[in-house]
Amino acid sequence: MAELAQQISQWFDGTGIEVVISTRHLHDLSTLGYSLNSGICRYDIPAIRLQNGERSVNIVPQQLLDGVEKGIVTLSLEAPDGAGSREVFYLSLAPEEGWMIRKAHQPPEARLILTEDRFFMAVDSLA
Predict the structure, then answer these.
(1) Range of the domain at 12
(2) Would you tell me how many other CB atoms lie within 10 Å of the CB of residue 115?
(3) pTM of the prediction?
(4) Which is nearest to 47 in space by CA: 14, 76, 80, 86?
(5) In the structure, what pLDDT confidence band is assigned to residue 37 with cuts at 50, 70 and 90?
(6) CA 59, 34, 45 angle in degrees (round to 5)?
(7) Share of the chain above pLDDT 90, in %
(8) Distance of CA 68 to CAs 46, 94, 111, Å?
(9) What is the pLDDT of residues 71-121, one digit of tens each?
(10) Per-residue 3-state assignment (H helix, E strand, C coil) for the chain
């Protein structure tokens, strides 16, 4: 997640969109079977907020394991009209390296490799 935060910061460098990286204390029940021996069900992990005026995107870690996906992260857009946020994408770790992305309503099998172009298409309404 730290590498993703660094990559996103680089993508937005010099754009005028503010990138805020914070630390989230995650109590991850998906690791419960593993945590009895290793204690990994609670950990600190980076979260990312992209801010452009009243518009924002939150990229927040959710859990380590979920079926075929690992490293589940929710990307949600916050509407400037006060309508709240709505989940639009899920990110997950790619099998080899990097991240995968899918729309929230799609099954995990629909995931695609996260590229800079795909990321900017996902957060297009932020601009």
Answers:
(1) 2-126
(2) 12
(3) 0.82
(4) 76
(5) low
(6) 25
(7) 52
(8) 22, 11, 11
(9) 899 999 876 666 665 758 999 999 889 999 999 899 999 999 999 999 999
(10) CHHHHHHHHHHHCCCCCEEEEEEEEEECHHHHHHHHHHCCCEEEEEEEEEEECCEEEEEEEEEEEECCEEEEEEEEEECCCCCCEEEEEEEEECCCCCEEEEECCCCHHHCEECCHHHHHHHCHHHC
Q: 13-38 burial string, b = 16+ CB within 10 Å, else e?
A: eeeebebeeeeeebebebbeeeeeee
Backbone angles phi, psi at 37, to 5 degrees: -100, -35
Residue 14 pLDDT greater than 60, yes or no = yes
Please give the pLDDT value at position 77. 86
Rounded Cα distance between 101 and 38, Å, is 29
Q: Based on the structure, what is the number of domains in the chain?
A: 1
